[in-house]
TrEMBL record:
Pfam families: DAO (PF01266). PANTHER family: FAD DEPENDENT OXIDOREDUCTASE DOMAIN-CONTAINING PROTEIN, PEROXISOMAL SARCOSINE OXIDASE. Residues 1-20 are annotated as: Disordered. This is FAD-dependent oxidoreductase. GO terms for molecular function: flavin adenine dinucleotide binding; sarcosine oxidase activity. InterPro entries: FAD-dep_OxRdtase, FAD/NAD-bd_sf, MTOX. Residues 1-11 have a biased composition (Polar residues). Residues 40-393 form the FAD dependent oxidoreductase domain. Its cofactor is FAD. Keywords: FAD, Flavoprotein, Oxidoreductase.
Amino acid sequence: MTEPHLSSSARAQDGGEDVGTAQDAVLTEPAGSKVDGVYDLVVIGAGLMGACTAWAAGRRGLRTAVLDQFEPGHPHGSSHGTSRIFRRVYPDPFYVELTAHAADSWQRLEDDTGVVLRRFTGAVDHGPDREPHRLAQWLSDASVPHELLSAEEAGKRWPQMRFTTDALYHPDAGVLDADLAVVSALARASSDGVDVHTSAKATMVAPGGDHVVVQVIIGDERVPLRTRRVVLAAGPWNQPWLARLLGKSAPALTVTQQQVMHFRQREPAEDWPVIVHRDLARTDLEGIGVFALPAGRAAPRAVKVGEHGHGTVTTAEGRDAQVDPASVERLVRYVDEFLPGLSPEPFLKLSCLYTRTPTEDFVIDTVGPLVVCSPCSGHGAKFGAYIGELVTSMITGDGSPPDRFTLRAHASAPAP
């Protein structure tokens, strides 16, 4: 694999922390600036969305730079780790259709890089509030292969799990290696001429005549990059960026700190599917809303288990990275009851960040030269390659975001 060119210096996933004015810039000519010194786009944030946008833009021949405060794989945002869920099932036909586009986009990225980023394990959805039969109908409407099983049948197929309702299985699901996806996308982007700058902190976006100036701290220098478009793919750092850039027009974003635990398999040779289980009546567990998936390269023969809700409100800069003891206790009890194939003591406890909207729909839209890219709410990773291609098509003028993702749609959403 071709390694991306990494220009080093300072350190937060996905982006910058402050938005100043043009007067803040110390205007020195950036090294490696493009042709007339102006990029077609500068991407702030090189997590999954930013890295995939850089890949897609490089593929289209756009003069591009991508910036990140940290190195790829850092644990401070939402794009780290070797296991994220890829699945076709959604409790919403809109997203079922979108997963088909995502599958095609991931295949293009895999073909382009020569790197396998997804491992297909299949997925099981169960629980009264997951509504397996309704999900199955939407998969049927989208011609997605699937199978409905009774609780007894599911228990025989997966004896390491416990079921209280019918279960839905579909094979076109599995684990996405997020760390590898970021590195591979950046490597390919670099080979296509994209300037990849990590440990490079964007601090300001301001008008500059017929272009925009993005000020970046690289080492001890303040370097202005001139560009026609800015893609804000800063994950949880989007919250302060958008508040400064859009003011009252900024979408409502809430950053929460979430916990995931890793549990060892009792039978190392046993294959585990992706699992989504929802049973809100279980008030003793504060309503079950659990996901589980094979833990990937970082922890082979282990399963990662987490709660989709119950996050603590925080900020990208203010999070403490401490694991909530109440969440640990709930997940240990859950594993003991519903996942007997796992040893119920977690050997690894981690936190990450969600950036939520009130509707859990993404925010992808343009405002003048700014492209807002916030696929979020804890379910965006599976769409990374698709989002990168979508954002690039918006910049070239041959694509537009779904209406549900626009700032206009989010403006009418209830406050969180």
